[in-house]
Amino acid sequence: MKKTPYILLLPLVLLFFGSCLEEIDDFEFNKTSRITINALVTNKKGPYTVHVSKSSNNIQDFNQKDRRILPAYFKHFGNSSSLSNTALTGPPYEPVTQAIVTLSDDQGNEEILEPWQGSLPPSQQEYWPTYQTFADLGFYRTRQFQGIPGRTYILTVQYEGQVYQATATMPLPAPAIDEMTLEDKLVPFTMGHNTYQVPTISFQEPQDQKNAYLFFGRILYNDERRLFFPHESDFWTSIAESFVVIDDQLLQPSVVDLRFEIPNLVILRDNRFLLEMHTLTPPALAYYQALKNQDKNLGGVFNSAPASPPSNFSNGALGFFRVSSVSSIITTKK
């Protein structure tokens, strides 16, 4: 029998632009800025990316052109019509570009990350002309660091005389995905394509340990210029708009044809499709569950301001430092 995992919808604004939802109250940003750090290290070849920011009140007048490219921001402010005369003319946070970011492990390896000088996509530069590189947005990246399962990693950020630190141990290697197929799913009453593909996978689930998995999917195009961010998949995973998280408590030792849909990802026939399976530590699972609950509670007129999801950083920083081992598979529709 096919199992259906529960799905966590994780909006782009939460992951790419920081966990700043705690700062929103009655459609206004709190005057007290909080530093936010989001980072991911895997056992895949780097570079790995760290994003450092502070909450901001960068909301000003805007025109319809601005509003069309920023729909993700507005849905998290409740009723978007109430923002008809405001917009984010830059990122909805204050980039931290002068931090000292250090990644180390329990084997004595250490690296000071450098600002990521890669150019932003031209489309993004058009709307935020003062931001030309990822470094301008507060991104830092490694050069030679390599993540290894079983090792403990320490991420340290120094900024304005304060030190923020998180420690996480990378889980054991993720199970290999033995097989993946794409099944047709009919969507009636739709314009254009009315059939898309849903992945099903098979793998061996270790029963002697507690596990949780994050599944991230990406369509691979021959022309990478079609992608908004044509960069490494680790970076894609860091900013992914949505993916699927599974707790292994309902999984059998031999998982066969586990079927799930990745929200907001439309897979068409003949697409080359990459699926990654990331292991999650218990704190990481709690973090994503909190994001799920936070997103469910947004938007109501009588809802209180959402609480921040749990952070593994010290000194009151928001965000999360995730370390995951990864297995992956690529398939082409036959």
SSE topology sketch:
Elements: E1 7-8, H1 12-15, E2 24-25, E3 28-29, E4 35-42, E5 49-55, H2 64-68, H3 71-75, E6 93-95, E7 100-105, E8 110-112, E9 114-115, H4 122-127, E10 139-141, E11 152-159, E12 162-169, E13 177-186, E14 195-204, E15 212-220, H5 233-239, E16 243-247, E17 254-259, E18 272-279, H6 282-296, E19 318-324, E20 326-332
Parallel strand pairs: 4-19
Antiparallel strand pairs: 1-16, 2-3, 4-5, 5-6, 5-10, 7-8, 7-11, 9-10, 11-12, 13-14, 14-17, 15-16, 15-18, 18-20
Keywords:
single chain; 334 residues; mainly beta; 6-stranded mixed β-sheet; 5-stranded antiparallel β-sheet; 20 strands; 13% helix; globular
Q: Note the run of SSEs as H and E.
A: EHEEEEHHEEEEHEEEEEEHEEEHEE
Tell me the number of helical segments per DSSP (H or I, 4 or more residues long). 6
DSSP strand count: 20
Shape: globular
The parts where pLDDT drops under 50 for at least 5 residues are 1-30, 57-88, 223-232, 299-305
- Based on secondary structure, the structural category is mainly beta
Biggest sheet overview = 6 strands, mixed
CA radius of gyration:
20 Å
Which whole number gives the mean pLDDT?
72
Helix fraction? 10-25%
Spatial gap, N to C terminus: 24 Å
Task: Give the tally of structural domains.
Answer: 1
Report the portion of residues in β strands.
25-35%
Short structural summary:
With 334 residues, the protein is mostly beta strands. The chain has one domain.
